[in-house]
């Protein structure tokens, strides 16, 4: 409050006697506020126009509530498990994320538009002029500001509009519930429930099955074309992304296509330059994972799982574009910069003497990518 003449201030007893309206006026006066206009937007109560405005506000809050409910429903019931583009059910699966965004967005929009409309239609549009002042607040200021706030609430007429109160409560409540479901929903679902392979986080598509060799396959752009990798295929200092292939999948278009899409399959095959290969430091227990100058590392970043697609030949660094982690290809893809703290998993490879192609001697011997709860290393 600005410098006020104490003689003009009411005593505590007088304050206690004053009505809310008196306190509002007193507060404004003490704050040096001149109230120029404070018109009631609906001087005649209960008109059809007022009811129409009320219904319009309630409609937006109701939309927010319904959209919030839809968000919860989509989050819980919409088919969210991965479906390959060529498989039935892909269309519904592809709509999962857009539906989450659309329903939550509509819920937030409904609350926002409802609040804006309410402010526009029911809050008195006052015009006031106030002088600025310095200093802390005195008791009288605190009392009057509380009265002003209560008065603003009263003049907003929210107390006598049960339909708006109910729909606002429903809209905000359901939206809040939806956000709560979103936050804790991941803890309610069992990620292993319908998984055929209960160890899926520990294994990738490189895991040999039925004793069959898993070869390194190039991506040519045609998901049904099979081109395998021979040692002479890469120049020294080159890198290529490769995927697993089994002879039994030769004519299985679906399996060939899935092998290129499975998220834990991409592997960087790097052929080091001879002078760099001489400097390599190998990880203990993985000394025979390379074939000559060829080293194969999972492409899934150990930070948050982005594809570490960049290989800088000059420095032998593997770079993840998401948060700029860098891994040293000469030292078992150990992280040397950025937020990643774990090396990239190395795939053990060898040459199949019979066919002359490179193959994976086994799956990765450690989980690839970021940490997960059950992972100990
Ligand atoms: S995901 Fe690679 S640095 Fe973050």
From TrEMBL:
Membrane-crossing residue ranges in chain numbering: 57-78, 90-118, 166-188
Gene3D superfamilies: Rieske [2Fe-2S] iron-sulphur domain (2.102.10.10)
InterPro entries, per the entry: QcrA_N, Rieske_2Fe-2S, Rieske_2Fe-2S_sf, Rieske_Fe-S_prot
The entry's keywords: 2Fe-2S, Cell membrane, Disulfide bond, Electron transport, Iron, Iron-sulfur, Membrane, Metal-binding, Oxidoreductase, Respiratory chain, Transmembrane, Transmembrane helix, Transport
SUPFAM superfamilies: ISP domain
Function: Iron-sulfur subunit of the cytochrome bc1 complex, an essential component of the respiratory electron transport chain required for ATP synthesis. The bc1 complex catalyzes the oxidation of menaquinol and the reduction of cytochrome c in the respiratory chain. The bc1 complex operates through a Q-cycle mechanism that couples electron transfer to generation of the proton gradient that drives ATP synthesis.
Full protein name: Cytochrome bc1 complex Rieske iron-sulfur subunit
Family: Belongs to the Rieske iron-sulfur protein family.
Subcellular location: Cell membrane
One protein family per Pfam: QcrA_N
Main location: membrane
Protein's membrane topology: Multi-pass membrane protein
Residue span(s) of domain Rieske: 264-358
Highest taxon of the lineage: Bacteria
Keyword Cell cycle: no
Keyword flag S-adenosyl-L-methionine: no
């Amino acid at each position: 409050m600005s410098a006020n003449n104490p003689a003009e201030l009411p005593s505590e007893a007088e304050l206690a006697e004053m009505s809310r309206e008196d306190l509002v006026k007193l507060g404004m006066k003490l704050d040096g506020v001149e109230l120029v206009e404070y018109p009631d937007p609906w001087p005649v109560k209960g008109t059809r126009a007022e009811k129409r405005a009320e219904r319009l506000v309630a409609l937006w809050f109701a939309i927010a509530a319904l959209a919030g409910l839809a968000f919860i429903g989509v989050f819980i019931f919409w088919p969210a498990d991965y479906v390959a583009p060529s498989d039935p059910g892909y269309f519904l699966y592809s709509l999962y994320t857009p539906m989450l965004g659309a329903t939550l967005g509509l819920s937030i929009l409904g609350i926002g538009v409802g609040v804006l409309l309410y402010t526009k239609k029911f809050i008195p549009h006052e015009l006031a002029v106030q002088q600025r002042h310095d200093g802390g607040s005195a008791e009288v200021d605190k009392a009057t500001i509380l009265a002003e706030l209560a008065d603003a609430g009263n003049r907003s007429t929210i107390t006598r509009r049960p339909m708006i109160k109910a729909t606002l409560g429903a809209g905000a409540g359901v939206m809040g519930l939806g956000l709560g479901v979103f936050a804790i929903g991941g803890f309610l679902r069992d990620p292993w429930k319908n998984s055929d392979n209960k160890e899926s986080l520990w294994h990738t598509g490189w895991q040999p099955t039925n004793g069959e060799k898993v070869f390194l396959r190039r991506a040519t752009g045609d998901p049904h074309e099979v081109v395998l990798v021979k040692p002479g295929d890469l120049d020294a200092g080159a890198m290529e992304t490769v995927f697993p292939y089994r002879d039994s999948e030769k004519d299985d278009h679906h399996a060939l296509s899935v092998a290129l899409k499975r998220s834990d399959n991409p592997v960087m095959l790097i052929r080091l330059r001879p002078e760099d290969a001489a400097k390599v430091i190998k990880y203990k227990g993985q000394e025979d994972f390379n074939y000559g100058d060829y080293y194969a590392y999972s492409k899934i970043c150990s930070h948050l799982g982005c594809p570490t697609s960049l290989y800088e030949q000059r420095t032998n660094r593997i770079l993840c574009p998401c948060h700029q982690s860098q891994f040293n290809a000469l030292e078992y893809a150990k992280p040397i910069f950025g937020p990643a703290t774990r090396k990239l998993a190395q795939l053990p490879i060898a040459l199949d003497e019979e066919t002359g192609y490179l193959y994976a001697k086994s799956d990765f011997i450690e989980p690839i990518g970021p940490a997960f709860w059950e992972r100990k290393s």
